[in-house]
């Protein structure tokens, strides 16, 4: 009877709400514990000198200046290669199903395969193809190109999802006015999909900044300041890995470097959010 | 009630002296191999309002989309037959599609302003048309907004988002966007169905005014609206999942002396 079932349903709802809230608290707790642990152990070592000085005594003293420069080079080149390639592929996947169904299916399967490939395999692949095959050696360029291959499936998938969410009536409206495919994409599809694309970019940057295995085999782990992208360079994640596992007494500096890495991720995320909000408000109320 | 049989009407020229603006010959459309519209032939007079009426799913929107080839956007859509817009064969392989779509504007059932400013909504298609001078685009935009009676309402908000306008204003903006390209034909797919009566009345008044310069094809479910606005009326019906044209004549004939039993039943409100 409905009268009897209402309190039971309410109680079920209350339990479900409590369970889901508890799960959310656990997630926040785990993140808080990780950040808290890193901050507690590393915060005292982080200052301006640490961010700018050269690495000394295998990282036990000095700073991470050259490491940050190498990391920035690797990330920048990786994004310069992966973002246009990923965006073009995502556009093809979201719009090419009608004209090239087999190629779309094949591309999607290839991206799925790439996404499930372990990073150590990417490292070996990058070493064989970029470092040795193309003669780029252990260099920032080899590492960045390998990372670009790694983040391509994540970025492409996010961008495709964002592009597919553009209301079809907007595209049809543009087509009905005789707008070319290019102008429709640039002025109608891209602005609407941009927040989703930026979210995918954040995920990709996170993955690239966190990568260690693939970079050890490609960009190497030389700690000096790179003079060009042909030089070997150590990324921040490789530096953390090395300090934590190979350098006795390097744990505090590893935590400090990890804190810098986390801060970088948070800063990039905040910047992307701010950009998205500004873009949206400019489109709505310039 | 005994089901009424469909008979294909013989297309009759509505005027011996006026050359049709749109000529459709044996148009059939299928999606994924499933027939949606079957053997439609008719001729539409220039600078008249032709209403397309009929029950849901009888192919009215499909017919409209064929006229400016928006059917090209649908996956696995096959169009057979011929359509002439003036002297242009719309579905010929060498037809200049962007040019055709600028000549044949289409207004959708749900207003679909671009997610940008009101000004950008009008400047974008004009830029695509090749109007490179900003001053010229600005003048054309203001003229189009004036024609749909929107300029005074939004003159101070041209750089605000078009999506913040009311439903009726959005629909008039979409009409202005199409009119800015100076189309020969304006296709409207139930343009008032998502609007309140006041906004609908404004759109209807606007269509009356546009008739003197533009050929209008209006899909509507609203028979009273067709009676108020149309010069000619085409009645579509659905049989075996495919839409067909059952009767096409001038408004008075259709509403006062319908010939086809289905039209008679539809006009009386007994079918559809």
How would you characterize this protein structure?
The complex is a heterodimer of chains A (286) and B (272). Chain A has 286 residues and is mainly α. Chain A has 2 domains: 41 residues; 237 residues, MetI-like fold, CATH 1.10.3720.10. Helices cover 77% and strands 1% of the residues of chain A. In chain A, strands 1-2 form a two-stranded antiparallel sheet. Chain A is globular. With 272 residues, chain B is an alpha/beta fold. Helices cover 34% and strands 25% of the residues of chain B. In chain B, the strands form 2 sheets. Chain B has a 6-stranded mixed beta sheet, with helices on both faces. In chain B, helix 4 crosses helix 6. Chain B is globular. The chains are: A mainly alpha (286), B alpha/beta (272). The interface between A and B is medium-sized, with 24 and 36 residues.
Topology at a glance:
The complex is a heterodimer of chains A (286) and B (272).
Chain A: H1 2-42, H2 48-52, E1 55-56, E2 61-62, H3 65-95, H4 101-115, H5 119-133, H6 140-164, H7 168-176, H8 181-210, H9 213-216, H10 236-246, H11 251-284
Antiparallel strand pairs in A: 1-2
Helix pairs in contact in A: 1-11, 3-6, 3-8, 4-6, 5-6, 6-8, 7-8, 8-11, 10-11
Chain B: E1 22-31, E2 34-44, E3 49-53, H1 60-67, E4 77-85, E5 88-89, H2 97-103, E6 104-107, H3 118-129, H4 134-147, H5 151-154, H6 167-179, E7 185-189, H7 197-210, E8 215-219, H8 223-229, E9 232-239, E10 242-250, H9 251-256, H10 261-267
Parallel strand pairs in B: 3-8, 3-9, 6-7, 7-8
Antiparallel strand pairs in B: 1-2, 1-4, 4-5, 9-10
